[in-house]
Amino acid sequence: MTVAFDRRVAEIRPPLAQPGRNCWRVARADRFGVAVDGDAYFRALKQVLLGARRSILFIGWEFDSRTRLVRDGDEGDGPNEIGALLDHIARTRPGLRAHVLIWDSAMIYAFNREFAGLVKMNWLTHRRLRFRLDDSHPLGASHHQKIVVVDDCLAFVGGLDVTRQRWDSREHLPRDPRRADPAVSAYPPFHDVMAMVTGEAARALAEIGRRRWRQATGEELAPVLPGDPQALWPPFVPVLAAGVDVAIARTCPAWDGELPVREVEQLYADMIASAQRFIYMENQYFAARRVAALLADRLAREDCPEIVLVNPGEPVSLVERSTMGGGAGAPAAPTARMRPFRTAARLLSQRGRRGRQGARQVDGGG
Predict the structure, then answer these.
(1) Residue 77 sits in the same domain as residue 104
(2) Crossing angle for the helix pair 37-50 and 82-92, nearest 10 degrees?
(3) 151 is in which domain, residue-wise?
(4) Does residue 127 share a domain with residue 155?
């Protein structure tokens, strides 16, 4: 997770982000922007990748080489499927190296993923494009980071993988013929966000990616000379802030002699505790019991801020439904992992009778 904060706030009170407590590092972003939903992200990603000159580093939970990036209007230069695009870039840029690291998923997810993706991306592509699966984690865990870094100068980080059932427009139309992928003729609306950063913050995210690659493969990736972030930045993505500090928080299991890291959880706790006017939480899932308990504690206090929770009304896939429970209108009882949201929503509704707090679920995939 990446959190931006204004330096003027830090001058008035101690900064919320504290490396070693609730984040790994605070780094300067020369530019900060947000790509909202798959349409904006995939379009921006294609343009940035086509501008790469030295390095592409992909870290993800899931990846489908057949994913189409631009789905209306001019597709621009180069192939439009992500796998073919990466291969094209590797073949036509002699000085560039591309590395893709994706979670080596459990068997329960296998039927939702591209068949023989490793063969296609590692054996049938140019040698300068390397694709690996990452199983360096405890039993029952997964790797869930979504990071793309180009030329060590511009990075995407957030909640969107480049895979099936992720593309959608800002309109989230009930029926959209563009919302179709290989083996999925149609799927419900889907919402998620990717942050964009340049400068020191992008190099910090590249460091996380190289560390992940080393843990998974035993190979060291050397940093590259940073490219020109202004030339890479897509003109259609607004720059929301310039010259700001961002905090990078992680969640990592105890593994291979490393202690567990729970910076994201602690950052959530500190944000909830320090909020003065409002708390807005938009999540694909709400399964954290500690977060529900912290919200309940704030609700019990007289200085409770306005709180709004936005959660999907219905998981998209069968696997999600079986592990996370049905949505608001599902006949099946929610699983234990959905109960924190239901608990928080009930508490917010009770408090809302006396104030403005409330919880809402929205239909859609994410």
Answers:
(1) yes
(2) 10
(3) 2-261
(4) yes
Exposed e or buried b per residue across 202-240, where buried means at least 16 C-beta atoms within 10 angstroms of its C-beta = bbbbbbbbbebbebbbeeebeebebbebeebbbeebeee
Q: Could you give the residue ranges of the DSSP H alpha helices within the chain? A: 7-12, 37-50, 82-92, 117-118, 200-217, 229-232, 263-274, 289-299, 318-324, 339-352
Per-residue pLDDT, 37 = 97
Give, as one character, the DSSP assignment of residue 13.
Answer: S
Residue from 100, 23, 34, 97 nearest 61 by CA: 100
132, 90 Cβ separation under 8 angstroms: no
Taking a C-beta distance cutoff of 8 angstroms, is the pair 69, 46 a contact? yes
**What is the arithmetic mean of pLDDT over 289-311?**
88
Query: Are residues 241 and 287 both part of a single domain?
Result: no
Tell me the two tokens of residue 325: 């429970």
Q: Is the dihedral of CA 177, 181, 184, 185 positive or negative?
A: positive
pLDDT in tens, 133-152: 999 998 888 889 999 999 99
pLDDT tens, 103-113? 987 655 666 67
Give exposure, 341-359, as e/b (b: 16+ Cβ within 10 Å). bbbbbebbeebbeeeebeb
